[in-house]
Specification:
Layout: E1 4-12, H1 18-29, E2 34-43, E3 49-53, H2 59-62, H3 77-84, E4 91-99, H4 102-112, H5 125-139
């Protein structure tokens, strides 16, 4: 199995923007990602949190999530509660466990070449953006 990651996407209102699902669908269709768990969170104006699983969606809502391979229940109630605290008021979020399937092919190629992956570490988004912005400024 390739590396797993929890990805949480938040949008204002009671649903995600359709463009987000198109981007996820593209990543899944290309074989780069596999979505293996999904939970939905909504925080209303008073800070009340409601959660739902994929199986609880209405039939017409499920079409957007055809890209989910299976739901394995990897997100615990504690995980969901912890992430729910970070969701903004009057926003909805989707919590996903994703598998970076593209790395499996790379890992097999490295092993076949008798190599090894020495380090694999995710750079936090804010750190990556700051580094890229700094590099752009230096080039200008």
């Amino acid at each position: 199995m390739s590396p797993l990651e929890v990805l949480v996407i938040e949008c204002p209102g009671d649903r995600l923007d359709g463009g987000i699902m198109l981007a996820l669908t593209s990543a899944v269709d290309s074989g780069a990602l596999r979505i293996i768990d999904v939970t939905f969170v909504h925080k209303d104006g008073r800070g009340r949190v409601t959660t739902s699983e994929l199986a609880e969606l209405e039939e017409h809502e499920l079409a957007s999530y055809d890209v989910v391979d299976e739901t394995l229940g990897l997100l615990s109630l504690q995980d969901i509660a912890r992430v729910s605290e970070r969701v903004s008021i009057n926003c909805s979020a989707v919590l996903m466990v994703i598998e970076h399937t593209w790395t499996g092919q790379l890992e097999r190629a490295v092993l076949k070449a008798n190599g090894r992956i020495v380090m694999q570490e995710r750079i936090p988004t804010d750190v990556a953006f700051a580094a890229l912005e700094d590099a752009r400024r230096r080039r200008a």
